[in-house]
Amino acid sequence: MKAGQSIVFAFIAIAALSTSVKAADALYHDLGERPGIANIVDDATANFLADDRIKAIFDNTNIDRFKGLLTDQLCVVAGGPCIYKGRSMHDAHKGLHLTDHDFNALVEDLQKGMDEAGIPFPTQNRLLARLAPMHRDVVTR
Amino acid sequence: MFDEGKLLATGGVSNIEGAGGGGLATWALITGYGTHDGFGVDAHITYLNFPAYSLTTWGVAAGLWDRVELSYARQHFDTEEIGAELGLGHGFAFDQDIYGAKVKLIGDAIYEQDSWLPQIAAGVQYKQNDQGLVDRLVGAKSADGVDYYVAATKVFLEDSLLVDTTVRATRANQFGLLGFGGDGNSGYSPELEGSAAYLFSRKFAVGAEYRTKPSNLAIAQEDDAWDIFAAYFLCKNLSLTVAYVDLGNVVIANHQSGLYLSAQAAL
Q: Rounded distance, CA A121 to CA A103, Å?
């Protein structure tokens, strides 16, 4: 009986755990997992570098490394099984003196990138909802 | 200076009183596309066609540092046939000037997605219409008045949803077009405005609004107003809003509902 109860409890615990893992992974899945996110990052980065409002920010950036870090980061934010090894948002943007205008330009280019990658608008917003609070670490002016 | 740096649609449209908002409700968003470091200006024209009346409103507004909003609007309320029935003459019109100021106090409707705190703004509107004599004839106490409001607006980005709740202290009869205060009630009443809008895309939103109004005049019960609207943002410089608005009973004309058309140009 005791063993039976334990098995039932274990089963419930696993079911609960898998549900929560599933929920955390839903956005990651909807963005096309890591390859889909890498695709979004490619499109968005091309937009950043073509955008007269913000391209100067990337003058001293190793673009390949940046893309890798951004992909890792978006993967983590979306609930995917990635590890972000870059600096914190606060440290990474300290000294860049970015404004709301810059931040919103980045958002617009990311949105365009997600359009190009075929991500539906509600899914885009689910990702943006998790990125938006970074505003307070990115905009320092 | 006019940095057009805010995200599309995040200044709202111009509401019936010329403030940044929806159609009937005033929102906590600061009008236009100026960010924290810049200014935004916009102009709008709005036309409402009801069975017995029409209302044309135009105005200009400025958003300063995404913090302060200043607005001016002029409303032209044409009584058409009702004017004749009331003995005022066919096409008798009330004109009203509305001077508004709004200050964002706390929160950010868009960025602070990890917080339940909405963007909260407080505002004041001075309204003055040009028919003081007629206002008194229908029982109003004065032709000018001041509204005070607090608005709370939040975009729930996760759900592509915008929600607003506004509390307004007012003495206005039909937004002030029929004067302020009345023989029924002459003091301030707290009134409620609410909007909910679903964002279908960055350019297109559909929503509904409700606005309660005081009923100060003994000659006619004043009803609450509601609308359903669709707003299309062609770009940061131009938006168009179409709505179906119901004002209920307006003086001696029952069930005044009809089409609301509005265009806003912004810089």
A: 19
* Beta pairing class for B39-49 and B238-250: unpaired
Instruction: Report d(CA B90, CA B222) in Å as an integer.
Output: 23
- Check: complex ipTM more than 0.90: yes
| CA distances in angstroms from A107 to A132, B8, B31, B55, listed in the order given | 9, 11, 20, 39
User: What pTM does this model have?
Assistant: 0.91
Q: B-chain residues within 8 Å CB-CB of A132?
A: 110-114, 157
B162: distance to nearest CA of chain A, Å?
12
Q: Print pLDDT tens along chain B (267 aa).
A: 888 999 999 999 999 999 999 999 999 999 999 999 999 999 999 999 999 999 999 999 999 999 999 999 999 999 988 888 888 888 899 999 999 999 999 999 999 999 999 999 999 999 999 999 989 988 999 999 999 999 999 999 999 999 999 999 999 999 999 999 999 999 999 999 999 999 999 999 999 999 999 999 998 899 999 999 999 999 999 999 999 999 998 887 888 999 999 999 999
Task: Give me the long-range contacts of A62-66 (CB less than 8 A, separation at least 24).
Answer: none
The partner residue sitting opposite A101, judged by closest CB among B5, B156, B199, is B5
Which spans in chain A are helix H?
Answer: 2-30, 33-50, 63-77, 89-93, 100-116, 121-131, 135-138
